[in-house]
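Working notes for the structural subgroup meeting. M.R. asked for a predicted model of this chain before we commit to crystallization trials. I am recording the input and output together here so anyone reviewing the notebook later can reproduce the run.

Input as submitted:
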Amino acid sequence: MSDAGYGGAGRPTFADPTAMGLLSLAIACAALVPIAFGVSVTTPGLRTAAMFCLFFGAGGQFLAGMMSLANHNLYGGTLFTTFAFNWLMNWWVLGQLATGTAPDHAVMMAVDAAFLLIFVAMTYGFGFFSKLLFVFLLDIDLIYVFRLANAIGNTRAFALPIAWLTVGLAAISLWIAFAMLINPVAGRVMFPLGGPLFAPRKPAA
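Returned structure, recorded in token form:
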């Protein structure tokens, strides 16, 4: 993700913000885990998680996205920025639920379908950079698949898979962030990322 879509010449404007964005994502996911497993579905729990969604999910990833775009990292910047606004919606939804007001079902289902299409395309693209990045996006895809299944079926049958996928998303985010932060310091690969899953087609001669 750190060099995905990088098209700048010379030294980038900022240090690579990818690890910061991923750590922010992991923290925001961790805040949702107790709610996802039904442990803290209370007004204090919803409001507490909402603030982590605002500062880390939205704020941290928006900052990472803007810095990535300034570094001419189109792919990483696009993903972080889009996801940041999604986490801003998570903040708003949790705040509404804390007051006893649920967001509109049809609107949320339509937006989830749009996000699924976006992330499926991004998943394919990240397969050209790293196997683990592909799995990272695949985890997000599955969350949206199960969210849509719940919405279409008007059920909570897929709540538990979503909860475990949220845990998985946090874990993968931490692994990738640690790979970027610890591997260079240690001078060896302590957190492997795996090579590309796909190989770009070579242009015809």
